[in-house]
Design goal:
Spore Coat Polysaccharide Biosynthesis Protein SpsA, Chain A; UDP N-Acetylglucosamine Acyltransferase, domain 1; 14-stranded parallel β-sheet; 11-stranded parallel β-sheet; 39 strands; elongated
């Protein structure tokens, strides 16, 4: 039977340097909570179990992970009092009963990926190590725990910066805060930790020397890409790591066949999916769980959140959409606003300054200009004229409008819901529809046109002449005074 592995993720701290009421591990990185990146990497790497050590805002942290990984084997251990990293692992270790090996990860390293964890496990197996410590060479090691090796080059201990001698502080190989250990040896070492150090805490790093002293084999896993274990303590560090993750994300998209016209101004968050041959214009922002199909065109300034776009669709400049669906071959924009609940069927066209909300438009329907379509259903092939409004709110409740297939709605029409317009009906321009319209009927509610002959000569022309003379007199008077 293959060995069972568990991962302990340290996420109990508040993160005071973030200057935030929100727990540090809940701050988003490319649209995902920081903690979700680390937990996601462990699950992708194949760990059988994940135990997250929570403290500050523990319920919010747990809720975020349950939302992102509803069916994953994730448990939680509460560290009520912050007494150091060793104490945090002590809190979580009982929940890993039955595991053969335990990884320990920091909850603030969102760049950590599954491949790094797989290589960590591979090195442990190859070396037959009791404990593997991940390290890297730091140009400026200030603040990091230093890696001390013995004469044979094996890791013998880690010394924290505050406890290091001048000679130890001169070392540049530092602790990355990522470990993989035999569970039994880890349990023995944790039981021997003391607070005899500069900070009066239980250091997890002391487990390295204790393991080595009891005959355990401690191996160093040297990372050549330290970015993978870069931690976040400040908002500046958050921004820097997000920039690098985004750059790598965009490079991967281009390798996968997506065209980015201006990568420097493009944002694509972590959960977003994009098909081959899709083109993203400058300033595009794709957020949340947005899914873009193949051969789509997403023009400049578009912002899509949790939106699905079918193959071959065209989203024109400066469209904003949230929780919407755009069907294959459909077009939206420019300057359209697709609010939650919008469903545009195949080949639908929604034009400039059209706003939709909980609106379903059937195949080939069109609303090309300056309309509001809320709480409505529009049948296939219907044409919605400019300035059309579905009056869906009566001051207390929302009501639906149903427009049948092939309906023609003239410009400047108001449809006072609840109301239904039957298939192939025609609504004349300027009509206010307050009752259902039968299929195939014409409905017009305009008042009769009235014409007054000679109106300009009798009324407007004399007034215009009077104003002209008054203005000329005022100007003349001003010149005389001057």
């Amino acid at each position: 039977m293959p060995p069972r592995t568990a991962a302990i993720v340290l996420a109990a701290g508040k993160g005071t340097r973030m200057r935030s009421a929100r727990a540090k591990v809940l701050h988003p990185v490319l649209g995902r909570p920081m903690i979700s990146w680390i937990v996601g990497a462990t699950l992708e790497a194949g760990f059988d179990q994940v135990v997250v050590v929570v403290g500050h805002q523990r319920e919010a942290v747990a809720d975020a992970l349950r939302r992102d990984f509803p069916d994953a084997p994730i448990g939680f251990a509460h560290q009520a009092e912050q007494r150091g990293t060793g104490h945090a692992v002590q809190c979580a270790l009982p929940a890993t009963e039955g595991a053969d090996a335990v990884a320990i990860l920091s909850g603030d390293t969102p760049a950590l990926d599954a491949d790094t964890l797989r290589r960590l496990a591979q090195l442990k197996a190859e070396r037959g190590a009791t404990l593997v410590v991940t390290t890297f060479e730091a140009d400026d090691p200030t603040g990091y725990g230093r890696i001390v090796r013995d004469a044979d080059g094996a890791v013998s201990r880690i010394v924290e910066h505050k406890d290091a001698t001048p000679a130890e502080r001169a070392l540049h190989e530092v602790n990355a805060g990522l470990y993989l250990a035999d569970r039994a040896a880890l349990a023995d070492a944790l039981a021997q930790l003391t607070t005899d150090n500069a900070q009066g805490e239980l250091y997890l790093t002391d487990a390295v020397a204790l393991t080595a002293a009891h005959g355990g084999r401690v191996a160093g896993f040297v990372l050549h890409d330290p970015f993978r274990v870069a931690g976040i303590n400040t908002r500046a560090q958050l921004a820097a790591i997000e920039r690098e993750l985004l750059a790598r994300r965009l490079d991967a998209l281009m390798e996968a066949g997506v065209t980015l016209e201006d990568p420097a101004s493009t944002r694509v968050e972590a959960p977003v999916e994009i098909g081959e041959d899709t083109v993203l214009g400058p300033g595009v922002q794709l957020k949340g769980r947005t899914v873009i199909g193949r051969d789509c065109r997403i023009d400049a300034g578009v912002v899509l959140t949790d939106t699905t776009v079918g193959d071959g669709a065209h989203i024109k400049p400066y469209v904003v959409a949230e929780s919407a669906e755009v069907g294959p071959g459909a077009a939206a924009g420019p300057f359209a606003h697709l609010r939650p609940g919008t469903v545009l069927g195949p080949e639908v066209k929604v034009g400039n300054f059209v706003e939709t909300k909980k609106a379903t438009l059937g195949r080939g329907a069109k609303a090309s200009h300056l309309s509001y379509l809320g709480d409505c259903e529009v049948g296939a092939g219907a044409n919605i004229g400019a300035g059309t409004i579905t009056c869906n709110y009566d001051g207390f409740d929302k009501h639906r409008t149903v427009i049948g297939e092939g309906v023609f709605i003239g410009s400047d029409t108001q449809l006072v819901a609840p109301v239904e317009v039957g298939a192939n009906a025609v609504v004349g321009a300027g009509t206010t529809v307050t009752r259902n319209v039968a299929p195939g009927a014409l409905v017009v509610s305009r008042t009769p046109q009235k014409e007054i002959a000679g109106y300009y000569d009798r009324y407007r022309k004399p007034k215009a002449e009077a104003k002209r003379r008054a203005k000329a007199a005022a100007e003349a008077q001003t010149e005389e005074k001057g």
